[in-house]
Design a protein that fits this description.
CATH class: Alpha Beta
Strand order of the largest sheet: 3-2-1-4-5-9-6-8-7
Number of domains: 1
Number of strands: 9
CATH topology: Rossmann fold
Structural class: alpha/beta
Protein name: Methyltransferase domain-containing protein
GO molecular function: methyltransferase activity; nucleic acid binding
InterPro entries: DNA_methylase_N6_adenine_CS, N5-glutamine_MTase, SAM-dependent_MTases_sf
GO biological process, one term: methylation
Shape: globular
Helix content: 25-40%
Order of helices and strands: HEHEHHEHEHHHHHEHEEEE
Region (Disordered): 107-128
Bound molecules: S-adenosylmethionine
Strand content: 15-25%
């Protein structure tokens, strides 16, 4: 089945997709808006590394790479790593990557997989130069909830994965993790989703003494801890709705790590904004993602971004 992300065409399996094709469009809107923000910055970076956790089909990082490499003129090097616990998802992401490369070649946007050919500081100024972007994409199996690998675990921990890949610092962290609480799964999801989507992709695992809401939110504190560990300068995480978005924004505020905290609705490019519990809510539609940035990323982003103040 072809997903409806255009112009990038990727295969989505009946398993390991976000809950509905509609959710895919909304995920795509957040990712594309992030790319727009990066392209509107005063100093677009020449090299970027992007870590996508719970990558599923890999559609988020491939869309990001597709949009960014088409829209920015400065980029020399883009390194992308997608991590997922499911072997099926990782295989699918790898074949989507192959398909992405074929499309890029067909469209004359071939990428180097060799080391950078342009010295740092020299800007790309032609379509020919753009072909010299060095793009490295990898999809790897890993369990992001597990800090350390244990002898019993059959999936490597994220720490292990990052050591193997040879990079422990990542500029941008993106994730669309499982975020549906067990009650919402039973009450709000369509029967087709309940019957055909693996619960692992949608509902976080249960832990003792957690409320239904806490189980739905389980991945976010871990994602924020990982963002600190890998020194991510920008984070974009997808959420179920506005209420969860505000809870995640609060978790982020409590870490003291972030200079900017915003909630993005389904269409974050729509101008309408409001403030809820001190957090700027951008765009129109349902609460869709939480966007965080640190001071070090300020020059990559538009000047009119407001700082979050406690
Ligand atoms: C909602 S799906 C998102 C897929 C993809 N990011 C997208 O937007 O289409 C969540 C993904 O998280 C993965 N996942 C669940 N638990 C995980 C864990 N502990 N570590 C890594 N990935 C996990 C699932 O296999 C699934 O592919």
């Amino acid at each position: 089945m072809l997903s409806n992300l255009q112009p990038l065409k990727v295969y989505a399996s009946p398993i390991h997709t976000a809950a509905t094709p509609r959710a895919k469009q909304e995920t795509a809107a957040s990712v594309s808006y992030l790319v727009e923000q990066l392209c509107a910055g005063s100093q677009v970076p020449e090299a970027l590394s992007v870590l996508d956790l719970c990558t599923g089909t890999g559609c988020i990082p491939l869309l990001f790479a597709n949009d960014l490499t088409r829209k920015t003129r400065n980029l020399n090097q883009l390194e992308v790593l997608g991590v997922d616990i499911s072997a099926t998802a990782v295989r699918l992401a790898q074949s989507n990557h192959e398909r992405f490369r074929e499309q890029a070649n067909t469209n004359g946007l071939g990428f180097n997989t060799a080391p950078i050919t342009r010295p740092p500081g020299v800007k790309a100024d032609s379509q020919r130069d753009k072909q010299k972007i060095t793009l490295q994409v990898q999809f790897v199996r890993g369990n992001i909830l597990q800090a350390e690998s244990t002898a019993k675990a059959n999936v490597p921990s994220l720490t292990h994965v990052l050591q193997d890949v040879g990079r422990t610092r990542w500029d941008i962290l993106i994730s669309n993790p499982p975020y549906i609480s067990p009650a919402a799964f039973n009450k709000d999801t369509a029967r087709s989703v309940r019957n055909f989507e693996p619960k692992l992709a949608l509902v976080p695992p249960g832990l003792p003494n957690r409320s239904d809401e806490e189980q739905g939110d389980l991945f976010y504190p871990r994602l924020l801890a990982i963002a600190d560990d890998v020194q991510a300068r920008i984070v974009l995480v997808e959420v179920a709705d506005l209420a969860q978005a505000v809870r995640v924004a609060k978790f982020a505020g409590q870490t003291g790590s972030w200079d900017g905290i915003e909630v993005w609705r389904d269409d974050p490019s729509a101008t309408w904004t409001e403030t809820i519990e001190g957090f700027k809510i951008r765009g129109s539609g349902n609460g869709r993602s939480v966007f965080l940035w640190r001071r070090e990323a300020a020059c990559w982003l538009p000047l009119n971004l407001t700082k979050w103040s406690r």
